[in-house]
Amino acid sequence: MTLKGQAFPDGFLWGGAVAAHQLEGGFDQGGKGLSTADVMTIGGNGIPRKVTDGIDPNEFYPNHNAIDFYHRYPEDIKLFAEMGFKAFRTSIAWTRIFPNGDEDQPNEAGLKFYDDMFDECLKYGIQPVITLSHFEMPYHLVKEYGGWRSRKVIDFFVKFATVVFKRYKNKVKYWMTFNEINNQTDFESSHALFTDSGILPKPEEDNEKLMYQAAHYELVASAEAVKIGHKINPDFQIGCMIAMTPIYPLTSKPEDILFAQRAMQTRFWFADVHANGFYPKWLLNRFDEKNFNLDITDDDLKVLREGTVDYIGFSYYMSFAVKDTGKLEYNESHDRVDNPYVKASEWGWQVDPVGLRYALNWFNDRYHLPLFIVENGLGAVDKKTADNKIHDDYRIKYMTDHIREMKKAVLQDGVDLIGYTPWGCIDLVAASTGQMSKRYGFIYVDGTGSLNRYKKDSFDWFENVIETNGAEIE
Ligand code: P53
């Protein structure tokens, strides 16, 4: 079957994705409280960001002003509309709605901001796709409750979810609960636990145990939100959000294959719980072996069974490889090896378009649920020429290669795919490094002061992809 001339199914949601803290700015405006993203300094390629105890006037916090989408969204959404976006994935900053997280009443100014911004999208027929918690939570919940260490945070999250579900029930259909909930599998890295769960481990604590406990509370909170959301509007589609990085065995040695399988189980059990509504047995055995004695109640297990997700939202940037280490326990911070068959980006991310087709089939076989690619893209340094052009042919190539594999998965393999919203459709602050120079967008943002917007070559290219519904990708 030839791919040329074949379009994606009608209604396919082409668009773009961002997250509140990475583009809005206005970190202290409209009554917004301080979030975990607001206490993270700038880092660099290979240089971790610092998490400070509150705001240190001597540090630079790139998320505070970001690209000022808070004030400029009408201009930006107009550009998205020009590209023909059908969907715009962003998140609601929890701290605009509940500045400290534990208030009784929500902040009306924050609710109004999203009302107005969603209306601006809907005016052009762009539907907002909303993540409830994208790498941020109220900093107050970190200071007072230890972040997701605390069971109490389930109630705060569910309250936040209920307020926004009710408020936007006629404006938003597609929701996701926790962004890349499984990134904290890398629990030894400098801030995976902080960005996912608002946890700064103390030296004497066991990061692995902290991670499993926090993830359990998040999964319960997610399931509770799914149940409530379906009551508020039965048409809601509420998904999870998983960072999909296929983990391949480096060789066909059986021990390598088995180890890679366990690595996949270790990185993706979160999706099992979200989608199946129960824990896989191997993991319960692991908890026992390690004497974790986690706080998991029978009521929790009931909620997990009742609040399974409607679809799997996932990001896809890269794949990993592993080889047997002699013990069947995958440690994400140590056990990854380079894959000689794929090339890495400037930031060391192993670019692998075929892995996207593999990932789509893997999810489809395992969960039999609709899938939604809610992030994909190439972080690169872009150069603006003297006449304000950005020739980002490398980005067009990256995306063409990925859309081609996605097309095979949908048209040939029969995967049920809702849409494709590439990451950072407008340049924004990188999550891992805080840099503005790691760019993903179709729209260039001059981060050095003017914050002016410029269309890159990929802007016109993507406009054509959407207009032809992918028919020209071969
Ligand atoms: P940046 C690690 C691995 C895969 C995806 O990342 C990741 C991360 C954490 O950085 O994050 C997602 O900006 C995330 C976005 C993030 C995007 O990928 O570090 O959902 O918030 O910006 C790209 O290049």
From TrEMBL:
<dbReference type="GO" id="GO:0016052">
    <property type="term" value="P:carbohydrate catabolic process"/>
</dbReference>
<dbReference type="GO" id="GO:0005829">
    <property type="term" value="C:cytosol"/>
</dbReference>
<keyword id="KW-0378">Hydrolase</keyword>
<dbReference type="InterPro" id="IPR001360">
    <property type="entry name" value="Glyco_hydro_1"/>
</dbReference>
<keyword id="KW-0326">Glycosidase</keyword>
<dbReference type="InterPro" id="IPR018120">
    <property type="entry name" value="Glyco_hydro_1_AS"/>
</dbReference>
<dbReference type="GO" id="GO:0008422">
    <property type="term" value="F:beta-glucosidase activity"/>
</dbReference>
<dbReference type="Pfam" id="PF00232">
    <property type="entry name" value="Glyco_hydro_1"/>
</dbReference>
<dbReference type="InterPro" id="IPR033132">
    <property type="entry name" value="GH_1_N_CS"/>
</dbReference>
<comment type="similarity">
    <text>Belongs to the glycosyl hydrolase 1 family.</text>
</comment>
<dbReference type="InterPro" id="IPR017853">
    <property type="entry name" value="GH"/>
</dbReference>
<protein>
    <submittedName>
        <fullName>6-phospho-beta-glucosidase</fullName>
    </submittedName>
</protein>
<feature type="active site" description="Nucleophile">
    <location>
        <position position="375"/>
    </location>
</feature>
